[in-house]
Write a structure and sequence with these properties.
mainly beta, single chain, 119 residues, seven-stranded mixed β-sheet, 0% helix, four-stranded antiparallel β-sheet
Length: 119
């Protein structure tokens, strides 16, 4: 079983920055695709960014240049650096891990961390 615990959310003014962290349990961390999703009030959860075990990254087009995903396998942690934050970035941010098994994938979610961008 994999457990994911996010941290780093909070209240920030427009234009500010936050770094979210997601600590994962289990030695399979280095074999996972890791991602961040977010869910704004009244909206569906959307994919934000992902990083593969080979550290290839992908981003939601509208966030390119402002958000950066990274992983530290030694610390079993994935990060999301968010810069130039806007009110529309307000959401609960969730960490996601996809772990390859024999013939299938296991998928795990964290409990979420709330980010509020407001003056």
């Amino acid at each position: 079983q994999v457990q994911l615990v996010e941290s780093g959310g909070g209240l920030v003014q427009p234009g500010g920055s936050l770094r979210l962290s997601c600590a994962a349990s289990g030695s399979i961390f280095s074999a996972s695709v890791l991602a961040w999703y977010r869910q704004a009030p009244g909206k569906q959860r959307e994919w934000v960014a992902s990083v593969t075990s080979g550290e290839s990254t992908n981003y939601l087009d509208s966030l390119k240049g402002r958000f950066t995903i990274s992983r530290d396998n030694a610390k079993n942690t994935v990060y999301l650096q968010m810069n130039s934050l806007k009110p529309e970035d307000t959401a609960v941010y969730y960490c996601y891990a996809e772990v390859p098994r024999t013939g299938y994938f296991s998928r795990y979610w964290g409990q979420g961390t709330r980010v509020t961008v407001s003056s």
